[in-house]
Design brief:
The radius of gyration is 22 Å and the shape is globular. The protein has helices at 2-22, 27-42, 46-71, 75-100, 108-133, 144-156. The model has no long low-confidence stretch (mean pLDDT 83). By secondary structure, it is mainly α. The chain contains six helices and no strands. It has one domain.
Amino acid sequence: MLALGLVLNTFGIGLFCWAIFALAVYALPFFVALSIGMTALQSGAGLVGALLVATAGGTLTLVLGQVAFAVTKSLALRIAIAAPFAVPAAVAGYHVVFAVSHIGVPSLAWREVFGCIGAVCIGITSWTRLMVLAETRPFDRVGWWRTRPKQFLRQHGPRG
């Protein structure tokens, strides 16, 4: 029975860590949705209205951020767009890793170190996921699929 408990605890912590890394890019849209939903609820929109407004606000935040990141070619502007997505994810990562480290780390200093490492890892993961989601640019006229076959045919064309 003890072995089953250890296996299930390990599986649960692993699943929890996977969820944190998978959902890191959604920290800013979730915060925006929560703020908009609470404001709508306090202004009298009702529970259903607040949920609808919050969902629309969070979705709009994520979509506009990804589209702006994909369309922008300037590195400075991309950093300015991606930073608001990565910073809340890093803060959430710090708090999650700090809280989970209470399980097996007795020293406060080491919990802080692990929390900072978790913040950096999850912030970088959020940054990378935003770049991967927005890396394909459908508005570019020249892509690898247009240049690659010509280069291939030039190098390995028909030999006679």
